[in-house]
Write a structure and sequence with these properties.
This protein is an alpha/beta fold. The chain has 10 helices and 11 strands. The chain has a single domain, classed as Rossmann fold, CATH 3.40.50. Helix content is 40%, strand content 16%. The strands form 3 sheets. The protein has a 7-stranded parallel sheet, sandwiched between helices. The chain has a two-stranded parallel ribbon with strand order 7-11. This is SDR family oxidoreductase.
Amino acid sequence: MKRILVVGATGNLGRLVVSELKQKGYWIRILARSVSKLQILKGEFDDHKIGDILDPESMRTAFSEIDTVISCAGASLNLKDFSDNKTFEEINLGGNLNVLREALRAGVSKFIYTSFLRAEGIQKAEYIRSHDLFSEAIRNSGINYTIVRPTAFFSILLEFLEFAKKGIGIVIGDGKARINPIHEKDVAKAVVDALGSEEEEINIGGPDIFTRDQITELALKVCGKSKKPIHIPIFLNRILVYLLRPFNRRIFQFMQFGNTVHTLDIVGPQYGVLRLEDYFREKSKR
């Protein structure tokens, strides 16, 4: 039986990856920053180690006798987590480089990493560049690997729903850019399936393609609001973003990422089966 180490196991995607692995009968070790975070996983693992990806020494023992490392580790895009001022590069690139070095040192046979779907112009965002730089490091490392590249997670779109509950529908730009977001459960399935795949990169998206206007309209409809989206010109939002830069670099990078993805088509192969409308309806009741 393969012995799997999941890094970033207590995050939104990591928890679902652990659950999917458990269902498939794998032996699972998780790396967590604290014992309190283990409670999120409800015991769906065989072993655990406490350590931080930014502190290589603290996580060294986690890689012993491991066949495959799955890294779901990365900087959160949830504004509630932005009290941490570390940049996307420090976490997505620096932290995962530490994980990769330890995997190589321990002789791990495969490395699976969750990145982001490539799209023309998306590398302008530092969030994306940090993922791409690490993906390049994996390719150059010599390790057997699979990089799973989803479009936007459903959870990233919850801000649309929160605004819609208040009867507000805000879209950056003209709202015509298209995307097929994907549920984290579908991404978790793709990540676990990658254990048996020889593919180096797997691009995935959800079942439905929306414009940004249509996502906003869907959120408003689910909340029972008969409103139309309000469009914010992209140049005004860019000014706001750069005014924020001196005060909190993490928020600046997040807003920069938002400006970039709201104006690009990000459409991946239709892999997922779970639908955004069902997700919005479920979350609107909470």
